[in-house]
Design goal:
homodimer, alpha+beta, 7-stranded antiparallel beta sheet
């Protein structure tokens, strides 16, 4: 991955003319004269000197071997940030306020335990580091009052240890990346089916630590539903849960680990619930007259147990940008547009649906969904846009680099709420983003989609783009983020459906779980991490 | 409910002749000369005098009003025990070692909080009490070093507060019993679909506190999957979770409450995920050549996403007793037997499957399941036994009274494990029960069924019957229970799939969650219940 953005350089895209026009006309954002990424390599980034003491270093070397303790500039810079907007601003500006004082790369579970022991002994904070793709500051190198902070890089622990093809489980190490995991499972005819947007660069450990949801979570479930059992190293020792499908033996210890974002310990092994590779996949797009009608149709499908595995409905604004981005200017497309206009869909909403499974089942499910979508006024746009979506499903973060090159503020945020509260929450967050950014003189384009369906509600995923306030990017970002977070909390929705809490959502954790809920989490932390070395500054407000 | 057993007196059953023969021939158990239940009412049961101090009583009266603080003999006896085998032995013997020193009946959430405050102040332990149906000692009146213990009877808090028909949720109070809940929901065309065997006499609060699973959990999920949000009163204050379908904001606080069995606090409100009442129900029975083949067929169905909502496969031993119990001696039945014998099923296993939902869906799912069952050598026995099972699905506890009247030890226990570990666990538990009871000279009849399917495994539910050792019932019971629990732990299976931990499973909690897992739970308890007044002696080993 590019050390200052997303993807590799050769993947760089460029925007089609209609998208450029839309950005210029609506937001005053112009195409860049030249790419604005940093000029040098990671070596050229300003970074405070490492504070790692010789004693602490000796402890780490004893734990993992000298060749796996790095404190050179490049190693530190590349583990100094995640991929949030503030992270990207700092990396592009080639100036980091802080970095890990060293990077430690254990090879196995005993080495993880040894690193934690050495750090507790030496008063060094530990930031578990997988793919480094957090968009909420989850891997920020915060020392939290300790003498130093190290990044515990888990990417050497990236194996599939065991596959139980009878029980459909796979025991894996935490540092394995999405593509490698799926490649290994495919060798046994299996898949996990967990495809977050960060899939290419994120790890199993990161997914579990943040309670991630993949794009097909409507069909296969969230990562917390896909974990059968796990092993967890804490400064107070290991936690290990039983490899069983379910239990009634007390509050779930597994659930205490999932979503703990490194503040309680380090996930060192995960047994995942896998499934046979689907024989058939069918992705297609629909045009639905309005966002409200589309949401109602998705609710009907989900509550009837008939939802597609991937279900994603863009609002009018996201639809417009998606169409502009996908615009090829071909004659077929122009005809399709005319057809939709005649049908009253010129302001319609794009819906993407995907079905995976056995051939017969996919056909039957697809037919049932089509019935519901047609009665909601939907028009089938066929499989071509569905295939295009599948091809580009991980592309949005690449696009963000493009937009930042043009001097745009671009950010996403997500929440979940009940179906009956969906429209209210949608309006409140839109208003908050518009209000806060208009007050700064940078009116935004705010887009949203409904995805990740549940019988009782769904996720709302917002993207907003505005002209960046040069030199005041963080102030501008914080104004928008605060307004949106406050609106979400006031609506009684969750502050995060799948991005997690990290640094950025901490102010709303009190609204999320209440004061006593925070105290319960702090009590767990005090017991499992008595010295408070684990990932300071994340999840729990100070 | 009968104060010393299950059901009401008018429901008393009697065993058909073939069942009587089986018990006599295999176990030496004879029909009783006369029912052996206790002669008097609850007033005649020996019970230590109430230790409630005047000061403590005043605090409770202030909290709920004098008319809702009872310390008469009948009130105390009827909240002194659950429905475990040791409980029934004590009640039938009309001698209780302990009882609650008073029974307190709050009307609402503030009164629950006031009771907890008064008890913390006065040093009085609190046992939350719903239906009192625990089979693991979950409501035993243990004072745990405190001056007294009260039963916090929640049955006055039994309302449905709110139904959100759009989001399919219902906010209910904890003390509502299964039938009342389903009756109220049916008024809105809805159902929860949670039908544990205790359904008629157990409460929502009890289900959630014990992470219960209903008979249709394969279809609708466990209770912990059916809880959207909840409110929880602890001695340290209230916990309240958001009414959202999902969240990634830290470890789930909701999951810390579910399964906490009253040791952290009292569930005072639950928002449940409900669903439309099914238009169609189809229950039918199959005969499968062997338990192993049946389990394999259930695995195939579940892993293909095609399992019936209720799926239950009896082993050869349970099948024999079920047939004996259902034996009407009719000519049709004799013919059916002949037919099965011809097909090689004379030693076959009974499988009960149930489908609920829309008409078309039920038909399609039923057809798909039938295909798999036929290819496993199954023979369809039609809907008549299916309907009989539906009628008698809550009957087993009534039957237990019958068997105890005859001087039988009768007990059930359950576990869950992966599909690949199912046969090993099954054999280990059977051997343990046989070995331990044969060593005491009382060879048992051990029966088992597979139920509650998951893609990665299933529940094994054991019933065992032996001639009771008169006067040494508890010693005999403990020997069997210990042998079975040790076998389960050694097999790596869970000590309980849906009965919970209570007093009886505490010795195996260390095997279940490890020493540090216990410490994590204790840390939560120390923070939420600093005086340790909540349900002493349950869940956590001392």
């Amino acid at each position: 991955m590019r050390w200052w953005g997303w993807g590799e350089d050769e993947h760089a895209t460029s925007l089609p003319a209609p998208a450029e026009r839309l950005l210029r006309d609506e937001l005053g954002i112009e195409p860049p004269g030249a790419p604005r990424g940093p000029r040098g390599g990671p070596e050229s980034v300003a970074l405070p000197t490492s504070r790692l003491s010789d004693i602490a270093r000796r402890g780490l070397v004893d734990a993992v071997g000298a060749e796996h303790v790095a404190d050179d500039h490049a190693a530190r810079v590349t583990r100094a940030a995640g991929r949030s907007y503030p992270d990207l601003i700092a990396l592009r500006g080639e100036r980091l306020e802080a970095g890990p004082d060293a990077v430690v790369r254990p090879a196995n579970t005993p080495q993880v335990a040894a690193v934690l022991a050495a750090c507790a002994e030496a008063g060094v904070a530990v930031v578990p580091f997988g793919g480094g793709t957090s968009v909420v500051g989850g891997v920020a190198p915060v020392a939290g009052g300790h003498r130093a902070v190290v990044a515990l890089d888990l990417t050497r622990m990236a194996g599939v240890l065991d596959v139980d093809a009878v029980s459909l489980t796979a025991r894996v190490q935490p540092g394995i990346l999405g593509p490698a995991l799926e490649r290994e499972l495919a060798g046994s005819g299996l898949t996990l089916g967990h495809f977050p947007q960060s899939f290419e660069y994120s790890t199993v450990g990161g997914w579990v630590a943040t309670r991630s949801a993949g794009q097909a979570s409507t069909g296969v479930g969230r990562i917390d539903e896909l974990v059968q059992s796990l092993r967890f190293e804490t400064p107070a020792g290991p936690l290990e849960t039983l490899d069983v499908p379910a239990s009634a033996a007390g509050p779930s210890v597994k659930q205490m680990v999932m979503g703990s974002e490194g503040v309680l310990g380090v996930i060192s092994e995960v047994t995942l619930r896998v499934r046979p590779l689907p024989a058939a996949k069918r992705y297609e797009a629909w045009s639905i007259p309005s966002f409200a009608q589309g949401a109602e149709a998705l609710r009907a499908l989900e509550q009837a147990g008939a939802a597609p595995d991937v279900s994603r409905l863009s609002d009018e604004h996201e639809t417009a940008l998606t169409v502009a981005l996908g615009s090829s200017g071909s004659r077929a497309e122009a005809l399709a547009r005319t057809y939709l206009r005649v049908r009253g869909h010129e302001r319609g909403c794009l819906m993407m649906v995907g079905f995976e499974g056995e051939n017969a089942t996919v056909a039957a499910r697809r037919g049932r969904a089509a019935e519901v979508l047609r009665s909601a006024g939907g028009v089938n746009l066929g499989q071509r846009p569905g295939r295009a979506w599948q091809r580009t499903r991980f592309a949005a973060p690449y696009l963000r680099d493009e937009l930042m090159d043009r001097g745009a503020l671009v950010e996403t945020l997500e929440t979940a709420t009940t179906w009956s509260n969906l429209a209210t929450t949608y309006a409140a967050v839109r208003d908050a983003l518009h209000g806060s950014l208009e007050a700064l003189g940078t009116p935004p384009l705010v887009m949203c989609h409904v995805s990740h369906l549940y019988p009782t509600g769904a996720c709302l995923y917002f993207t907003f783009i505005a002209k960046a306030l040069g030199g005041r990017e963080l102030e501008q970002w914080r104004a928008a983020k605060t307004a949106a977070g406050d609106a979400i909390a006031a609506a009684g929705a969750t502050i995060t459906h799948h991005h997690a809490v990290g640094c950025d959502h901490r102010p709303w954790m009190g609204a999320e779980v209440g004061e006593l809920g925070l105290e319960a989490l702090r009590a767990l932390k005090a017991r499992l991490d008595p010295a408070g070395i684990m990932n300071p500054g994340k999840l729990l407000p100070d």
